[in-house]
Amino acid sequence: MKEIKRREIELLAKKCIEHDIPLKLAKDLLRTAEELSYQNHSQGARIKEYQELIDFHSRNHK
User: Fold this and answer.
1) Could you give the CA distance from residue 37 to residue 35 in angstroms, rounded to a whole number?
2) Dist CA 45 CA 34 (whole Å)
3) How far apart are CA 33 and CA 30, in angstroms?
4) Of 55, 53, 22, nearest to 36 (Cα)?
5) Is the pTM higher than 0.70?
6) What is the sign, positive or negative, of the torsion defined by CA atoms of 32, 34, 35, 38?
7) Which of 6, 29, 48, 62 has the smallest number of Cβ neighbours within 10 A?
8) DSSP for 25-53?
9) Are 53 and 32 a contacting pair, CB within 8 Å?
């Protein structure tokens, strides 16, 4: 299990570097997507949550 998790992080880091995305943002988006997938939220609510995360990390990344 640890090997799979380590490999996922390596791949995520590689893609983040390629697209100039903060790794913390990508991890937070994935974690939020997993959490919201188990809850009964509308698509609009999920998009709003993702946008808030992106805005937060955009301000902190500059």
Assistant:
1) 5
2) 14
3) 5
4) 53
5) no
6) positive
7) 62
8) HHHHHHHHHHHHHTS---HHHHHHHHHHH
9) yes
Side chain identity at residue 19, one-letter code: H
Contacts of 46 (CB under 8 A, 6+ apart): 33, 36
The identity of residue 51, as a single letter, is: Q
In this structure, the number of other CB atoms found within 10 A of the CB of residue 12 comes to 15
Greatest Cα pair distance in the chain: 35
| Token digits of residue 49 | 């949550």
pLDDT confidence of 62, banded at 50, 70, 90?
A: low
Q: Which amino acid is at 20?
A: D
